[in-house]
Amino acid sequence: MQIAIVLFDRFTALDAVGPYEILSRTPGAETVFVAERTGPVHDDTGSLALVAEKTLAEVPSPDVVIVPGGPGQSDQMDNDALLGWLRSADAATAWTTSVCTGSLLLAAAGLLTGRRAASHWLALETLEEFGAEPTGERVVLDGKYVTAAGVSSGIDMGLTLLGRIAGDDVARSVQLLTEYDPQPPYDSGSPEKAPAALVEEWRARSRHSTR
């Protein structure tokens, strides 16, 4: 099994690293970071880079595709090289997945039309504009498409997918060994729970805002 994690300039690191940390432990699987060009690709802070070891062209038919989000996603929405690769790779995948606003790239490629999908809460309206049915769920499965909400939910998506691929006991073991047992000091991880003033502030500042 080959798992391809897509990189592009100004991706959000945890969107890629969260699923990588979980799914790279899939028995018998090869995990590879891919981009239009090989070499380091910087995240949205500019201070961290992951290395794309292979180009998109060198990985034409992976079994699993993972598309992260991040501020750089906006610049990729009309990137024919990436969107074309997503469409062609999807023809052969067992699973096509995304984290955060990575689902907007899947939607722009025409892969989520008529499907239920998750994204960052600030991007749900944009997701709907591309013909998907946005939900506020943390992880959404619709056929072979698995989409996750914002950033940290990529870990949940990875565990969900690992359970489907390798079985519940393998997924439980990885959860145990990574000690994934969230106990956040604040209960403001969704717009339904966060203070309303904060939600409105970030809506106004969002690149997805139509206001």
From TrEMBL:
SUPFAM superfamilies: Class I glutamine amidotransferase-like. It comes from the Bacteria. Residues 180-211 are annotated as: Disordered. Residues 2-162 form the DJ-1/PfpI domain. It holds the Pfam family DJ-1_PfpI. Coiled coil: none annotated. CDD domains: GATase1_PfpI_2 (cd03139). This is DJ-1/PfpI family protein. The lineage of its organism: Bacteria, Bacillati, Actinomycetota, Actinomycetes, Kitasatosporales.
